[in-house]
Specification:
This protein has two domains: 123 residues, no CATH class; 123 residues. About 12% of the residues have low confidence. A five-stranded antiparallel beta sheet has the order 2-14-13-12-11, with no helix packed on it. Strands 19, 20, 21, 22 and 23 form a five-stranded antiparallel beta sheet that branches. It has no helices and 23 strands. It is 0% helix and 38% strand.
Length: 321
Amino acid sequence: MIRKLKFFASGFLLTLLTACGSANEHRSDNVPQAEATMVPIPITSHTPIVLEQATLYTTQNDLTGNHVINGTTDLLDATTLDIPLDGKPTWLVSAPFKDGVVLTAIMNDGKALAFKISGQSFEPFDISTNILPAGLPPVLAVTEADIQLITPPSDASQHTNPILIGNNLIYIASNGDLVSSNSISQTRLPINALIDSRILMDENNRLLILTQPTDRYNHGVLGDAIEASAITLVETSPKLRVMQTILIEAPDVIEGLSPIWADLDNDGVKDIIVTLSNDRSGARIVVYREDGMLLAETPPIGLGHRWRHQIAVAEFEAGGP
């Protein structure tokens, strides 16, 4: 079956949602701190892609989890390009490259179809990796001369994407470990990550990951009934180390694949925004400080098996919150 991918040439506009309210409850960290272990990479093992000076582009738009794009557009006046695809795409990721944009569609069998879009025209584009494990979210690593799809090692979770920090490929393993790997060695930190959690990263290369999977809420809005019950903050330098774990008390779970990591109260420090849900009162938006202090939350929906979710953090009007 030939399917068409419609690309809006004038750009995209994302809506915004932030949490409000206040509280002073403190969530303490009672989780034993895991120690990272380093092991040598055997000569026969997979060697991760190393791209110095690369910029990463993922389906998240931003590695802080904030789905907002600055600018304006008029979708009513937008022109479109119809790009025929031989199959059904499950993921789309794009990146600026030279004088245009490279748009990559990952099909349901993992095949990658890439197109270079310039103005009102497009043409097939050859990227160095043309297939991923089926269902794996893609990551494009872009330099001035090349674009590559990052291929994760064989022990990586097939439900989330890796990221790059320098020459190190950072990924969640299928057993929930956090792994930092390069061509010489591999460091593993047992954090019991949700295997479809997205890895967030800030300007200091710290990581924020959903952890401690639980099945205590069977809504399954994201495809299965396994959700996170903790948020773990990890530093990567000088070594992988858990800095903080925020525990979510039962019956709540974190109903999402990643927080938004943004400075909501303009104090210069990023806050952590998540959706908490349970089967009695449903979903609500909650904001934590990095030390686990509860800053704000919305009222819950009032009914279980319903969903409210954070999308983006930004000013609704100039000079506003």
